[in-house]
Write a structure and sequence with these properties.
The structure is a single chain. By secondary structure, this protein is mainly alpha-helical. It has helices spanning 9-18, 23-30, 38-48, 54-66, 69-77, 83-92, 96-104, 110-117, 122-130, 132-137, 139-146, 153-195, 202-211, 225-228, 231-241, 245-254, 257-263, 269-276, 283-290, 297-305, 307-310, 313-321, 327-334, 339-345, 353-367. The chain has three domains: 4-167, no CATH class; 198-280, no CATH class; 282-368. Helix 5 packs parallel to helix 7, helix 6 runs antiparallel to helix 7 (96-104) and helix 19 (283-290) runs parallel beside helix 22 (313-321).
């Protein structure tokens, strides 16, 4: 057994889990006969209350009951306590006041409260359902509460009211807003197609015409499975499939996000290049594209040439981790990575050996 100097809840629980103590020692612990501060003794007893050994579980429950309730309540309310230790008490306690303190303690995870919601008795159900901050953050607490076989009629009514107010109504409003936004987007698209200045891609249009590229040589990329489920993307894809290269170049420069995410994967460098020149291309899209392995190398090169894009850490990191990115683009960016990303990259088999070697060099240098 550990010496008195290193006795604490974490050590004892770890030893109990590892089976390091004989039963006589476990019984001594369950009786509360240890020189431990009570904030360490409480989680140990809570852990033992879940023991498969009924006698040990009962001894631990009795010992926990003997600790003054104000001390247990103070522990349950302590936001500096270990979340793991607090959650042991969530599972062990049946005291409404203690459980209320734990529900209100921000350190206790939402998952632990959801677990409690499924088995809580009516007095505790009320405490859970009125804690709207937790429920709004983690709807599964409400879902678990509604699955509780002991759910009282009053708690059910309140739970359904909360669901209607914060989730069902919100979902309806979000759908309405999405439909409105889609209509407005369509109007903006129509206006953009009518008035957009194509000078920025004039060179691409002229090159497409000069090279007389047949449309069949510019293959429209297949939709990913999740995109194929989106009727909007399927409709756009169907239209794109019938376009000439020149028309695709114009659409790539003028189109919305759905269009850009399809056309950036075109094998035609003219179409993909026009997509990257689209004035509405956002940094979040660039980051997503920088990580794609189904785009042409030229697209990744274009991203690497834009200092305003590569100056953004997430974009630079996505490029570096993309094995399809040109090595000349990637290597100058590696030194900008933080220590954590360098550590991950130096052993990443998904990137080239040159990238791993440079990551290892910079990692060792920054460590010093």
């Amino acid at each position: 057994m550990s010496t008195a100097t290193d006795l604490n809840a974490t050590t004892i629980i770890a030893n109990l889990q590892a089976g390091a103590y004989p039963r006589e020692t476990i019984e001594t612990i369950a009786r509360g006969f240890l020189p431990l501060p009570q904030e360490d003794l409480i989680p140990v007893l809570a852990y033992l209350m879940a023991s498969a050994d009924q006698e040990i579980a009962e001894l631990a429950a009795a010992s926990l009951h003997d600790i003054p309730s104000r001390i247990v309540h103070a522990f349950a309310s302590n936001e500096n306590a270990s979340a793991e230790h607090l959650e042991l008490l969530v599972r062990a306690s049946r005291d409404r006041a203690i459980l209320e303190a734990l529900i209100r303690n921000r350190v206790v995870s939402d998952n632990a409260i959801a677990e409690l919601a499924r088995r809580a008795d009516p007095s505790v159900q009320e405490v859970i359902v009125i804690n709207q901050a937790r429920i709004i953050r983690s709807r599964h607490i409400l879902d678990e509460l509604l699955e509780n076989p002991l759910l009282s009629p009053d708690a059910r009514r309140r739970a359904l009211e909360v669901r209607e107010e914060f989730f069902d109504k919100k979902a309806r409003l979000a759908l309405l807003a999405e439909e409105t936004a889609t209509a407005e987007e369509a109007e903006r698209e129509a206006e953009l197609f009518a008035n957009v200045n194509l000078d920025a891609i004039r060179d691409l249009l002229e090159q497409a015409e000069a090279e007389k590229i047949a449309d069949k040589k510019s293959e429209t990329p297949n939709l990913e499975s999740n995109e194929a489920e989106d009727p909007t993307k399927v409709s756009v894809w169907s239209q794109i499939a019938t376009m000439t290269v020149g028309e695709k170049v114009q659409l790539a420069f003028k189109g919305n996000k759905t269009v850009r995410m399809i056309l950036v994967r075109e094998r035609s460098r003219l179409v993909a290049g026009a997509t990257m020149r689209n004035p509405r291309m956002s940094e979040s899209e660039v980051e997503q594209i920088a990580g794609m392995r189904n785009v042409e190398e030229e697209v990744l090169r274009l991203i690497g040439m834009r200092r305003d894009w590569t100056s953004k850490y997430p974009i630079a990191l996505a490029l570096i981790k993309n094995p399809k990115a040109p090595i000349g683009v990637v290597l100058p960016l590696i030194n900008r990575l933080n220590l954590r990303d360098l550590k991950s990259l130096k052993d990443d088999k998904g990137v080239s050996e040159a990238v791993r070697v440079n990551a290892r060099k910079f990692f060792l240098a920054k460590q010093k």
